[in-house]
Amino acid sequence: MPVYVRDRDIVVPGEPLASQLFKGEGAVYVEKRKIYAKALSVVEIDSESKVIRAIPLKKKYLPAKGDKVIGKIVDVGVTHWTVDINSPYPAILQATEVLPRPTDAARMDLSKILKPGDIVVAKVIVFDLTRDPLLTIKERGLGKITKGTLVQIDPAKIPRLIGKKGSMANMIRKALGVDLIVGKNGRVIIISDDREKEALAILIIRKIEREAHVSGLTDRIKKFLESYGIEVENNA
Amino acid sequence: MRSNNVVLINEEGLRVDGRRPNEMRPFKIIAGYLSNADGSAYIELGRNKIVAAVYGPREVHPKYLALPHRATVRCRYSMAPFSVEERKSPGRSRREIELSKVIREALEPAIFVEEYPRTVIDIFIQVLEADGGTRTASITAASVALADAGIPMRDLVAAIAVGKASDTLLLDLNGIEDQYGDGDMPIAIMPRYNLVTLFQADGIFAPEEIEEALKMAREAIYKLYEGQKEALKRKYLKIREEVLSSE
Hints:
The structure holds two protein chains of two kinds. Chain A is of the alpha+beta class. Chain A folds into three domains: 10-56, CATH 2.40.50.100; 68-145, CATH 2.40.50.140; 149-227, Ribosomal Protein S8, Chain: A, domain 1 (2-Layer Sandwich), CATH 3.30.1370. Chain A has four helices and 16 strands. In chain A, the strands form four sheets. In chain A, strands 8-9-10-12-11 form a five-stranded mixed beta barrel. The longest helix of chain A is centred in the C-terminal third of the chain and has 17 residues, at 195-211. Chain A is flat and about 65 Å long. Chain B has one domain (27-245): GHMP Kinase, N-terminal domain (Ribosomal Protein S5, domain 2, 2-Layer Sandwich). Chain B has four helices and ten strands; from the N terminus they run ββββαβαββαβββα. Chain B has a five-stranded mixed sheet with strand order 1-2-3-5-4. In chain B, strands 6, 7, 8, 9 and 10 form a five-stranded antiparallel sheet that branches.
């Protein structure tokens, strides 16, 4: 089988991964019946389903419909707010997505509701590269955040922080008794009344960011927690 | 052809720094050299010391520079006042503006610019110490910085210069050879495609000399390419080793 790399290898842009007998996923491009990496990535090979995946080690956040993101209000307009979502594209939060329905936004002072510097948890409604993404906070669990600590990591590492079906994030939540809000854009909010637990959560998030490309991450995080005398439930 | 009496190749066929004509200077590349930039690289090629930093894709300011169908690429090459023997005035010189442009054009073909429309990718190149061949070393470093920033690319770009003195082709000119030699030909290549993205020349070269120069450059570029790959991977493999050895 024509595969040019091994599982878990690190590849640079332009490195050939496999022939087109494989299905390429992630940061790859196809040329002359070969699959190449297009970003600095870790390779994952699934030889049974014939899938070769390049998982980027670093990336910029590209909004996608339905993503939960953590944004910072940067500007207040007449009918909308501009929100920094740690992406090349600034997001728009329309007044109609914040206020209850029949309200004339133009006659209100929007800065009384959200002002520059405020942190919001929001969801992307639409995005298609030709226009800036639109956000909403009209759903359960969304809205302005008034307490907690904001940590920013590379958006490429967010899937590792969440884990399979949320396993990693849930493990941290349970073990430390903190609340975690994970935005797809690389921002995480830790809410806890216990300063020490909060600091520990930051350490763990940073550890995940640094070691995301090394396998056995969950076990290492468990050991790390245990080294601080915190018990971890074994439900994996 | 410049008339001079500087001996660039001695009777034994060795150059001023003791190299053979087809020998490049030793080089060292470090990826992720800076922590504030999205991506960065440092290169030493002989006595050249250059830092490249990449920001982006990010929002474009001023807004009118944004392109609706692709990312804009901006490049700024600048030499530190202390990078050469005689102090260089810190303003942007004509030469720096030109080099910024040719470096940008050498790198652009490697970048998937269509993936981030209406954004900008900024490349900053700072020459700390110069000794001939800074434009080519800058391209080699900037391409590593781009990959380090996680920017989607077709391939890396590596570059080297080939020059001429007393009718002999010299690989990777140093400062003296550049100044007193009979010609300088910087070449950048995307190694996987074997495509030339930069080709300049001053001096007079015969067609067969150009052929030969390209061959010499290509060999050197493949060596640089291996160094680029190694530098990019080293950063992550080091963490992997550290983690695994601590277990």
